[in-house]
Amino acid sequence: MTTDNGNKVEQVTPYGTHDMAKTEQVRQMFDSIAPAYDFMNRAMTLGIDIWWRRLAVKRLKCIHPAHILDVATGTGDFAIQLHQSLRPSHITGIDLSQGMLDEARRKVKQRGLDEVISFEQGDCLALPMADETFDAVTVAFGVRNFEHLQQGYCEMARVLKSGGMLCVLELSTPTNRIIRWFYGLYTMHIIPWFGSLKSGDKSAYRYLPTSIAAVPQGNDMLQLMQHAGLHDATFKRLTLGTCTIYTAFK
User: Using an 8 Å Cβ cutoff, are 223 and 240 in contact?
Assistant: First the structure.
């Protein structure tokens, strides 16, 4: 059931301890790896993550969003892509990690986009925005880090305007058994080894494959959206099932 799957990933924590809330562990992890995050993203996915974001952005073109909230915005890559492709009036990015936001602000300022893209530190489980504020809400590679998935979806639905779209891009596990074996070898062994060399935080890159395996996928993820009051929820698997786009409307 969806609830069981949600509970499963909620129990997966970056540092494998339960004497500190998952939210705080996630914050500390991303603060630790922020300087290496972009390099590791490109290296781990062979640059395919850029293409995944472009495909997700295309899903939003049909609603012509003027105001977008990018949840778990990280270093701002998705926010920047949203601006370049959709030219909305404003994009707000929110993230737990100050270290990641520092990187995001630096990149946005370099591109002269700090008037149209702004960032703030905050918890996705208690978004500091009013009801029905945004035409679209996005989150790329972030929902598996939510301490409470259903609460996170309810918050994102709350700040969406009626007719607005939620677009979630998340890593997933291939369904083909042979591909899944090679994928497991890569994510469970090669990525943690390489990640520890580059970032110095081996726990962060052990957490990555464990959280991917535990997060709800396919129809289970759609049920979380539907339970948050969203409708017309769909998903599309990408690149042999290693990533999935989920969309739904309010």
Answer: no
